[in-house]
Amino acid sequence: MEPDVASIAGHFHIRGAPVDVAAVARGHINDTYILTARKGEIRTRYVLQRINHAVFKDPPRMMANITRITEHIRQKVSQTDPQLARRQLTVIETNGGSGYHQDIDGNFWRVYNFIEDALTYDTLQSAARAGEAARMFGWFQRMLLDLPGPPLHDTIPDFHNTRRRLEVFQNVLTADAHNRARHARCEIDFLLENTEMSDVLPRLVARGEVPIRIAHNDAKINNVMLDRQTGRGVCVIDLDTVMPGLSLYDFGDLVRTAACGAAEDERDLSKVAVNLSLFEALALGFAAETAGFLTPAEREHLVFAGKLITYEQFVRFLTDYLAGDTYYKVSRDRHNLDRSRTQMKLVQSILEHEETMNAIVAGAFQDSLGDEK
């Protein structure tokens, strides 16, 4: 057992004493551990995390968001499905009643319940799983339409401000402090040729055609938990970036992470392409939960959002590669460059299939709106 982590766990209101802790290798940002506590013969598992406060500058505000979100969803679900409500993400309070603990080194820690008998997937080959994951993100947005109180805090300002991401990229490229641009000439050219995408959604928001909503903002496929036995959605996790945003951002990230069966850092680019069957499942799942509240402009730009968010993530990976791998964790040489190449290839594939994808979305929403009548 890691003694530091065990000591941190003692500050939280967990059931019993810590008896085991295991580090989780997954995740780009936070440090995550599976903590097991025992009281008598009963063992209870928890998720213990050290929040990366270099990325999330104000953990107390972020945890205030997450507490509001999780309590609201759990209370709503308990009215219709108490069993599902018990499987929603819950912030475990400290012994002093807070949602986080700050240690003597200034690190912020939190604890969640462990969702038993549920799984996440980094890639999806199954259309059924893809559709259910998309439905869950749509469900998550629908659950938060009536969140009372003031707007949520911005946990990462300008998170999906693609224009701002491009400005940062240009500064990093100009400096080229690590002499890496020479390895990415093709990627740099593609990025610069497609910058006009960054202005489309801001113009729609300014005209009032696309509203600001509560969005997950990091709707990757592995941020949905599916029941181990039934495959049915259980809950949405990784709520650090839940804040005001666009519904389109979430569907865009679903396209980026689930409409292609390849891994995010796949080196064999022949494997990177939109799978139209998976995309149709995403569209049907998302429409099933959102058809009742999305505006026409939102529905019409869902495919564009997939292209934009994939492009934006391409910009972010390429920027981090040129900057010396300062943001994303890497496990091999040129890891972020590999990631950027995968995203670029996926953007190219979306461009190739865009007309067909738009027709699929139109059909999915027509079906869902017809079901509501």
- CATH names the topology of the largest domain as Aminoglycoside 3'-phosphotransferase, Chain: A, domain 2
Outline type: globular
H/E series: HEEEHHEEEEHHHHEEEEHHHHH
Structural class: alpha+beta
**Whole-number total of structural domains:** 2
How big is the Rg? Answer: 21 Å
In percent, how much strand structure appears in the residues? 5-15%
Poorly predicted parts: none
C-alpha end-to-end distance: 57 Å
Query: How many strand elements?
Result: 11
Question: What is the helix tally?
Answer: 12
CATH architecture tag of the largest domain: Alpha-Beta Complex
On the 0-100 scale, what is the average pLDDT? Answer: 94
CATH level-four homologous superfamily name of the largest domain: Aminoglycoside phosphotransferase (APH), C-terminal lobe
Can you give a write-up of this model?
Helix content is 46%, strand content 14%. The chain has two domains: 3-116, 2-Layer Sandwich (Phosphorylase Kinase, domain 1), CATH 3.30.200; 127-372, Aminoglycoside phosphotransferase (APH), C-terminal lobe (Aminoglycoside 3'-phosphotransferase, Chain: A, domain 2), CATH 3.90.1200.10. The protein is built from twelve helices and eleven strands. Strands 1, 2, 3, 4, 5 and 6 form a six-stranded antiparallel beta sheet that branches. It has a three-stranded antiparallel beta sheet with strand order 7-9-10, with helices on one face. It has helices spanning 3-9, 59-78, 82-85, 127-143, 162-175, 185-193, 200-206, 247-258, 276-290, 296-300, 302-323, 335-372; strands at residues 17-24, 31-39, 42-51, 91-92, 101-102, 108-113, 118-119, 213-215, 224-227, 233-236, 243-245. The protein has 373 residues and is α+β, with helices and mostly antiparallel strands.
